[in-house]
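User: My collaborator sent over this chain with a note saying "see what the structure looks like." That's all I know about it. Can you take a look?
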Amino acid sequence: MLGLPDDVTVALFDLDGVLTTTAALHESAWKNAFDEFLLSQGDPSGPFTADDYLKYVDGRPRLDGVRAFLASRSITADESTVTAIADAKNTEFLAAIDADGVTPYPGSVRYLDAARAAGLRIAVVTSSKNGAKVLDAAGLSDYVEHRVDGNTIVDEGLNGKPAPDSYLRGAELMGVAPSQAAVFEDAISGVAAGHAGSFGYVVGIDRVGDASASSPQAESMRAAGASVVVADLDDLLTN
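Assistant: Without extra context I'll predict from the sequence alone. Here is the result:
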């Protein structure tokens, strides 16, 4: 009934863009932070775009995202500059949450309810250091048995997505082998992490297109190793 293989007993959910609509807040905050930096440098390569977000930032730990985007523009920056850009982004993101709150996707809540009713155990694996704050603001914390977030990645020296480390840590905390866990991701880097970790099932959530065969995002997810691509989590309930 959950659209997963029978031997999957644990769900490892990414947070922003999978369970909550906060991916849009992240993208907006990144754009403002990067555009301000590019303007200050007199960089002629143009502003930060939605495509830049998907390719270089989405799903990655904060500092890794800064480095990846700057490298894409052939910009060399020291670590203090990288940190300053990341901090500016996070300040704006937190202000947006405080001002507007956090909204979970209704389809995701329906899926979480169905998963909990069916006995599927739930963890969250996110690159964001704000995972606890976002879960609490969205009213989703009670669903989650364990959380791996950006703080865990730093504290335990894990490699960020697209490396599988954070998802493997999530499976370890839940006491299951990767083959018994499903990964749920809206970012290409996260889908790639699930595939690299040999997880039992990798669900791509296409929030950019419509999950059809002609959607570039869905195509990229399948190429990165998604077992299935859906437009919303509750689409799995009908499979």
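A starting point for your reply to your collaborator: The first strand starts at residue 10 and ends at 13.
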